[in-house]
Specification:
Low-confidence stretches: 1-10, 23-34, 87-101, 104-117, 177-221, 635-639
Largest sheet: 7 strands, antiparallel
Helix content: 40-55%
Number of helices: 21
Radius of gyration: 32 Å
Mean pLDDT: 76
Shape: elongated
Distance between the termini: 52 Å
Length: 639
């Protein structure tokens, strides 16, 4: 679409002032959700709850029977009107007008059955924002003449005026829905609808979104589609793709990729080899080994007041355009009430930074795919105020390809990535359609609109020799937090000692009694316990001498003592509730229990008194929980 800005400078200033005023007073196409009335949201929430109960109690067959009865009643009423008009042609002009409108609606319905309907009904008022836009009122019928991918369609109203309209303000128009929508401003239409619908169970609604919500429930559309129809979330939001993969099983979690993998011969480990000269595991370079930093997310659209946001976060993984190639790592974001559209990472805190908030991440992969890249998915965890239902929403996605067309790695620098709406398998969906629509203006205007688009700031950091050596000790495929990388290396070294150095026979597949190997992968799914281990180890390490820090065997022995004093009692404590994602009360309770336990250990210089105290109650454990079945882990990994 060509630029439509006026050339006169005075007109430009007037036009800009008018746009700013309209942006402050009117909802934008995607929805300025804080300006909507809370009464409408509460009414829509009650409506959705009633519809869910109605959908469970009434089968589809009964709904179709009611629809057939309604159509028969409409046909009978139309025939009665035609007979009365033939008997008495000198009656009032209103009956003649009703007959004409009924005949026109029949013709429109017949044409709708043959071809796709191009008529839409407005669900809200819209005023033209610039030349070429079409102003319309709620309930007005518009004829769509052209559908454009930017979310703005060419429409024609009943007066013959043409112009651009936002598609988020429109719903497909049908005869029944048109009657329901017109009930708000016309009492005569309400009376006609009551005469047709003789069934007392079928009640007419006065809400403008009723028809769309009812259609969504009848077609078994999920809660996200209902919330989008109600205007509670932006149109570009979708159910989180990466969250659904995490819920399917263990194959996309870090604990899955932390386990060693057998070689194709099944006689040795592929990514865990022993170096006899150094007396430790052998470092293995990978095809991709880098460190990235999440800076911030900007201009993220806000959801409506009908849902409460529990967590803002970014999930990332390796992706080749078709499938996920690594574990899915999550970094939680922080935000300020003054800037709710801006998310930040790695906040300044007293003590150690929780690994869940750490924006510095490492990444390793041996994939040779030329399309290999990093998939970022900003998302929110929410709860509906009306029903208490919890869910996970994706606020968009972006794919950063790690290699160019010639196979050269992309440079290490800061990247400003603009988010796409929908899912990674959808194309052409926008998060905020009101911004991209203005992309055809002047160059200055395009630059201003780009600043308003949802975006993610990521920095790729170049590796020095020390960082490269540290990453080479990790598994070939893994994404994690830089804050706990030294603990992962301890686990890998202990894994090498037990599986490669200390085994009497390499052909033995017996269980190995080692609580550290058996329980450490659980810490990757409980970041607060991992932070407790980090804090205890940092405190213990600060008391060691330089010569002791250079002794690897001594460090591993001290680490085992710290692990047994900190992690094992916490994992079996009855005071520690199970870890649940994005539950504020549960997280606060767990933090309090962990902080009290660490304080008690610091005062007593050991966890022995806490374990022997009559006040401390711990869950009994099976001996199998303290044994490491490496062959069973490998089978799960290879499956």
């Amino acid at each position: 679409m060509l630029p439509r800005w006026p050339r006169d400078s005075l007109q430009c200033l007037q036009r800009r002032r008018q746009e700013l005023k309209q942006q402050a007073d009117e909802p934008i196409p995607v929805g300025n959700y804080h300006q909507k009335k809370e009464e409408e949201h509460s009414l829509l929430d009650k409506l959705t709850h009633q519809l869910q109960q109605l959908a469970m109690s009434i089968s589809r067959e009964n709904i179709t029977e009611i629809g057939e009865l309604t159509e028969r009643a409409e046909d009978d009423s139309a025939e009665d009107d035609e007979e009365e008009d033939d008997d008495d042609e000198e009656e009032s002009k209103e009956s003649g007008e009703e007959e004409e409108t009924q005949e026109e609606e029949k013709q429109e319905n017949e044409s709708h059955q043959q071809v796709t309907s191009k008529e839409y009904i407005a669900v809200g008022d819209f005023s033209a924002q610039q030349a070429g836009d079409l102003t319309f009122k709620k309930g007005e019928i518009l004829l769509i003449t052209e559908k454009k991918p930017d979310g703005w369609w060419m429409a024609k109203n009943a007066k013959g005026n043409n112009g651009l309209v936002p598609k988020t303000y429109l719903e497909p128009y049908h005869k029944e829905e048109g009657q329901e929508s017109s009930e708000e401003g016309n009492e005569e239409d309400v009376e006609v609808g009551n005469e047709i619908a003789d069934e007392p169970e079928v009640k007419q609604r006065t809400d403008s979104h009723w028809s769309a919500v009812r259609k969504a429930l009848s077609e078994q559309i999920n809660t996200i589609d209902v919330l989008t129809t109600m205007g509670a979330i932006p149109a570009g939001f979708r159910p989180s793709t990466l969250f659904q993969l995490l819920e399917e099983g263990n194959q996309f979690r870090a604990s899955y990729f932390l386990q060693p993998e057998l070689a194709p011969s099944q006689l040795a480990f592929r990514d865990l080899l022993w170096n006899a000269k150094t007396g430790t595991i052998r470092s293995r370079p990978s095809h991709v080994s880098l460190i990235l930093t999440l800076w911030s997310c900007k201009m993220i659209p806000l959801p409506g007041v009908s849902i409460q946001v529990l967590s803002r976060h970014v999930r990332l993984c390796l992706f080749d355009g078709n499938k996920v190639l690594s574990n899915i790592h999550t970094v939680r974001a922080t935000w300020q009430p003054k800037k709710p559209r801006t998310w930040t990472f790695s906040p300044q805190v007293t003590g150690i930074l929780p690994c869940l908030l750490d924006g510095d991440c490492f990444l390793r992969s041996n994939s040779l795919s030329p399309d290999l890249g990093i998939l970022f998915e900003p998302g929110i965890s929410y709860i509906r105020n009306s029903t208490g239902e919890r869910g996970e929403l994706s606020c968009g996605w972006v794919f950063l390809k790690l290699f160019d067309a010639s196979g050269i790695p992309i440079p290490a620098k800061t990247y400003e990535l603009f988010l796409n709406g929908g899912t990674p398998y959808e194309k052409g969906v926008e998060v905020d359609r009101s911004v991209s629509r203005r992309a055809h203006g002047s160059v200055f205007h395009q630059m201003m609109m780009m600043r308003r688009e949802p975006q993610l700031l990521v920095k790729l950091r170049s590796l020095n020799r020390r960082s490269r050596d540290i990453l080479s000790l990790l598994p070939e495929i893994l994404i994690g937090s830089m804050g706990c990388i030294h603990l992962l290396i301890f686990y890998r070294q202990i894994l090498g000692d037990v599986l490669l150095k200390g085994r009497m026979s390499m052909q033995s597949a017996d269980f190995i009694s080692n609580p550290v190997l058996a329980t450490f992968p659980k810490l990757l799914e409980q970041p607060d316990v991992m932070d407790a281990l980090r804090s205890s180890w940092a405190e213990k390490e600060s008391t060691l001498k330089r010569s002791e820090k250079r002794d690897r065997e001594f460090l591993k022995a001290v680490f085992l003592l710290v692990y047994h004093d900190c992690v094992v009692p916490l994992l079996h404590s009855t005071l520690l509730p199970p870890f649940r994602w994005a539950e504020e009360e549960t997280e606060a309770t767990r933090w309090k229990v962990i902080a009290d336990f660490l304080k008690q250990n610091q005062e007593n210089k050991s966890a022995l008194q806490a374990l022997l105290s009559p006040d401390g109650i711990h869950e009994p454990f099976d001996i199998l929980e303290q044994t490491y079945d490496f062959l069973g882990k490998i089978r799960k990994k290879a499956a």
